[in-house]
Amino acid sequence: MTQDGPHYTQDAATPTGPTARRELRETNANLFSAVLDAMTDGVMVVDDKVRLVVTNRALRETLLLPPGSHGQQLSEVLHEAEVVAAFAAVLAGSGPKQLNIQYKGLTERSLDVRVLPLPDHAYWGHRALGIVRDVTEARSVEQLLRDFIANASHELRTPVTAILGYAEVLAEAPPTDAQQLAQFHDTVYRHAQRLDTLLRQLLDLNRLETGNWLLHQEDLQLRTQLVEIADQQRDAAAAAGLSVLVTVPPRLRAWLDPSALAVVVGNLLQNAIKYSKPGGEPVRIVASRADPSQVRISVIDRGIGMAESEQTRMFERFYRVDKGRSRRMGGVGLGLSIVQNLVQTLGGRIEMVSEPGEGSTFSVILPTRRRTV
Length: 373
Ligand SMILES: Nc1ncnc2c1ncn2[C@@H]1O[C@H](COP(=O)(O)OP(=O)(O)OP(=O)(O)O)[C@@H](O)[C@H]1O
Ligand SMILES: [Mg+2]
Description:
Blueprint: H1 18-38, E1 42-46, E2 52-55, H2 57-63, H3 74-77, H4 81-91, E3 97-104, E4 108-117, E5 128-134, H5 136-172, H6 178-209, E6 218-221, H7 222-231, H8 234-239, E7 244-247, E8 253-256, H9 258-274, E9 283-291, E10 294-301, H10 308-311, H11 323-328, H12 335-345, E11 349-355, E12 359-367
Helix pairs in contact: 5-6, 6-12, 7-9, 9-12
Adenosine-5'-triphosphate binds next to helix 9 and helix 12.
């Protein structure tokens, strides 16, 4: 690569003796290599026989080029016919080419490749330059955003359509039967509640992701807090014929943010109730000290459980194993994403064990020391 030095402006101070000129050439070539290797985009130069003559470090790493690729035909080291064809076309006189390829390296990468002709030169003749940019992360962020908007609008549409439909009927031809009227109101109310939950969850996620969820630690007696969280869901549990048992040593204290704790345990408990068989075994909340600086809080159900393939996905936004079942229960699939995000914000971690038909245990392990911010 060292013979591929770029052009340099000669100024008055440029040495003229042969040794001094050679030294200057070497210095320039070293500088050229250092600059190329510091670039995050991949760079390659191909000669008029479509042989690889210059590469930088980013290119070799991205394309996993074997050592000794220099001087070889591009088609021998790179099995991407489109790229080879683009170089051939540019060398044959076409204008610059731009393409995107899915490259199977260690993992599949999305690469933007730009190929352009280099100015002809008396020494090296006709050559083409390729610039390779790894856009995998940028593309996946764009995809996430698109999926998120599609999912969120889909979830918003259902309740909005229902509310609009019922409002029209109530305005144009209200039912005279009191029971039917009450049923209409109830349906509108349920859908409005669903909208409210969804918007609240989206705001929570946003606050977590933008780092705007401010924590206020307090010295809590854990049992009081957890019983209170359980009490808030006793009606829902009773409606499903389930009881909620809380087992916490009375002296267990922890520095935690009570509202963050309520969101984490409340969501896990809501799931435990929703995904239990009606009239089944009680749902349990168990807490204990994991070590001097951490507590472990587990929410245990003997409900429907989950297959291993689902377990890796259920923390994704909007992911539900059984959409129909979750939706009937008023769920949109955001609860566990919020829990996971919040647990991370709290500096803790989450563990789960689940067996289809046997039930699930979700445990959060949270640091409980007072933080000095
Ligand atoms: N305890 C559990 N037992 C069995 N499946 C569960 C349990 N907890 C969660 N799941 C599965 O994981 C999915 C995602 O849970 P998550 O709490 O994120 O969403 P959701 O409960 O469907 O809706 P939301 O919490 O937003 O109201 C659920 O739809 C369900 O399929
Ligand atoms: Mg949930």
